[in-house]
Amino acid sequence: MKKLSLGALTVSLSLVLNACSRVEQVEIPNADSTPQEVQVNVNDKNPLLAEFSGLYEGVPAFDKMDLEYLLPAIETGIAESLREHDAIANNSEAANFENTIVAMERAGQSLQRVFTYYGIWRSNMSSPEFREIQREITPKISEYSSKITQNAKLFERIKTVYESEAFSSLNEEEKRITRAYYNNFVGNGATLDEAGKARFAQINQDLAELHRQFGSNVLADEENYDIFLTKEQLDGLPESFVKAAANLAKERGQEGKYAITNTRSSMDPFLTYSTDRALREQVWNNYYNRGDNGDEFDNNEIIKAILTLRHERVQMLGFENYAQWRLQDRMAKSPENAMTLMEQVWPAALARVKEEVADMQAIADQEGADITIQPWDYRFYAEKVRKAKYDLDSNEVKQYLQLDKLRDAMFYVAGRLFNFSFSPAPAGSVPVFHEDVSVWEVKDKNTGKFIGLWYLDPFARKGKRSGAWATYYRSYTTFDGETNVLSSNNSNFVKGAEGEATLISWDDAETYFHEFGHALHFLAANVKYPSSHNGVRDYTEFQSQLLERWLLTDEVINNYLVHHKTGEAIPTELVNKIKKAASFNEGFKTTEYMASAIMDLLYHTTDPALIEPDAFEKAQLTRLGMPSEIVMRHRSPHFQHVFSSEGYAAAYYGYMWAEVLTSDAAEAFASAPGGFYDQALSEKLVKYLFAVRNAMDPSEAYRLFRGRDANVEALMRDRGFPIDSPDS
Q1: Is the distance from CB of 535 to CB of 331 less than 8 angstroms?
Q2: Separation of alpha carbons 227 and 544, rounded Å
Q3: Where is the secretion signal located (predicted)?
């Protein structure tokens, strides 16, 4: 899914990092230490600490990454940042915006550069060696964060600025980041007594280690459950998938066989096309039981421990539950408001699932399959229904979805909406961390101004976490001189066979556009301060979800969806079938997502003493009427959005919240004179929905774009659900 890595963090504001940590106390360099006291010899020329150098205002030295540099770089960066924050705290001048808030915006830059590399190892290039080093690094990060948020003098200065008469004279962006600093410190224990602060810090340490363990366990189960097939077991699988599976097997030392890896990009097409029901069940079980196999990588006890500590921590701050604490500064404001949205859509989604299952069961009965539809049958028979109802073959569509052509289509959309042009960076001009990574220059088409770089790491490989995400290595700011942007998209597509195009599904194509939407959000930014890039979680998915809509525009379809062998444009009749089937299988997609979102809210509004994860998940889904033919998109033991960090904890509902905005905004484009490429509306899109990042209240920004608040009925229309939902 969609997530910023550690490399994207603005250290000075995102003080409680979503990095992982261990429970044991580790001595951290104090603020009075000199760099030499915490460095080892390797730090004399440590590339992870160095300012970015080379072309384009400097770029990360990915070609010089070596794990031996990582720990000393983290230690040195932490010591430097602590000294910088202590200097701010001990400033003899009266606290004001410039000498306190702006000074904090500048602090910790060396450490932020180190996190760029740390994020690559953590997400793109993990290894057993890195995971061992991570065990030692992460408690240091947690303790560092606590040292800053519990610095009483520093908090007093922030409070002084926030409560001063001068606050009212600040502009909107300055007010928002000042308020965010204040709330961040309060929300992380700054007002507690010394005993409370100590306990709060210890909880952060313990949670960080548990988050690390959770993510490592999921990755282990993804790496340990490959299935190798023979030719006799390939019935029904598309040629392109078979070739890619052969390539994966060869990479894993099993030449002559066909690998089905335990990732969504491999699982999903296998379940869609394989005629071998027993194998479908095996692949399904491997994927959905990640972290839930009762072995050393089982995550159930870790979930309970995480929930218990989160609950204790927020109770120390006076909140009834974790979700209440988490949502106070989100668009939803409260878990009740978030759950209300879920409850508005859930009945209609369940009703649609009943219809979908009935259609699938009818085909299975007609074929004499003598089965009752099970979860490992859903994709397989849904595809049969799609063919029967719409004469639409997903594999036929896939022949026109070439990864490179879709990338060019995204560039086209960016050019029309944002006036951006993309061109490959000269060979060798930009270091990369893997041979699969490619880099593009981004410029303003009208002025020729250089905007930044776009890195793309598209393919799955061992050691790369599953899913798709976007991040940045440098954000746009102007407070210390204008900077350009270093943005990045990362995916897990199965690479095509050598010399052949990589073909992806329609869902994957939407994901490709989605993540590119995040990149455009980075590239289009027009804010002054780094902290303005720390978005509101239930809003930041909106811009990327909206960009998915351009995949179905005529300009993209007519120019970029061409057959990978013949080069012929996708036939009009096939396009019409795609559009007609646009809301097909929406019951499945909505229900599997919402089950995860609702469970997330339930986990974080229930007393953890009452929760045994496996039993709680089963009982709550039964109470909700979850269809037996579907499971949560992310079952609890591998729900990394929620349990391998706190980024989406109690906030996974945000995708649906953002989808309401998306559907409403899409209707604005659909009714505009120029459609989805309407110039006037595109300018408002960039100005109010992309460029402002978090320098403006999201609700106000949306009203400036749309002229009103978003309407949930747009979402219901979008998904083909009745406006007046049934009760069950």
Answers
A1: no
A2: 34
A3: 1-19
Give the contacts of 133 (CB within 8 A, at least 6 positions apart). Answer: 67, 70, 71
pLDDT digits (tens, 9 = 90+) for 583-600: 899 999 999 999 999 999
- Tell me which amino acid residue 424 is: P
Strand partners, 620: none
Task: Note the helical H segments in 252-299.
Answer: 264-273, 277-288
**Neighbour tally for 523: CB within 10 Å:** 25
By CB atoms closer than 10 A (0-12, 13-18, 19+), residue 607 is exposed
- For tokens 């790496």, what's the residue? 223
Residues 439-470 pLDDT 10s:
999 999 999 999 999 999 999 998 998 889 99
Q: Are residues 356 and 470 in the same domain?
A: no
Residues 695, 604 share a domain? yes
Question: What residues have CB less than 8 Å from 578, skipping those under 6 apart?
Answer: 392, 397, 506, 552
Find all residues with CB under 8 Å of 638, minimum gap 6, and list them: 218, 221, 290, 291, 292, 299
Side-chain half-sphere of 369: how many Cα atoms within 13 Å? Answer: 18
8 A C-beta contact, residue 632 and residue 621: yes
326 in a domain, yes or no? no
Distance, CA of 400 to CA of 577 (rounded, Å): 14
pLDDT band at residue 41 under the 50/70/90 scheme: very low
Q: CB of 681 within 8 A of CB of 669?
A: yes
Contacts of 620 (CB under 8 A, 6+ apart): 598, 599, 602
Q: φ and ψ at 424, to 5 degrees?
A: -60, 135
Q: What is the pLDDT of residue 467?
A: 87
Q: Do the Cβ atoms of 423 and 415 come closer than 8 Å?
A: no
- Over residues 256-281, the pLDDT tens digits come to 999 999 999 899 999 999 999 999 99
How confident is the prediction for the chain on average, in pLDDT?
Answer: 92
pLDDT of residue 724: 65
Helices 70-89 & 109-123, crossing angle to 10 degrees?
140
Give the helix ranges, DSSP H, for 317-428: 322-326, 335-366, 375-390, 394-398, 403-418
Of 60, 9, 17, nearest to 486 by C-alpha is 60
pLDDT tens for residues 557-581?
999 999 999 999 999 999 999 999 9
**What CATH number has the domain bearing residue 688?**
1.10.1370.10
Sequence-ordered list of residues with C-beta below 8 angstroms from that of 671, at least 6 positions apart, any chain: none
Report helix, strand and coil shares of the chain as percent, to nearest 5.
Answer: 60, 5, 35
Whether the predicted pLDDT of 725 surpasses 70? no
* pTM for this predicted structure: 0.85
Dist. CA 421–CA 445, nearest whole Å? 6
Residue in 713, 693, 705, 722 with CA at minimum distance from that of residue 668 = 705
> Which pLDDT score is estimated for 13?
32
Structural domain span for residue 646: 335-398+584-718
Q: Answer positive or negative: Cα dihedral of 23, 25, 30, 33.
A: negative
* Beta bridge partner(s), residue 441: 423, 453
Q: How many domains does the chain have?
A: 4
Q: What CA–CA distance (Å, rounded) separates 639 from 642?
A: 6
Question: Which structure tokens are listed for 399?
Answer: 């022949």
Residue 49 domain-assigned (yes or no): yes
In a domain, 597, yes or no: yes
| Tens-digit pLDDT profile for residues 319-378 | 999 999 999 989 999 999 999 999 999 999 999 999 999 999 999 999 999 999 999 999
Q: Do 558 and 601 sit in the same domain of this protein?
A: no
Non-local (6+) Cβ contacts of 391 within 8 A are 577
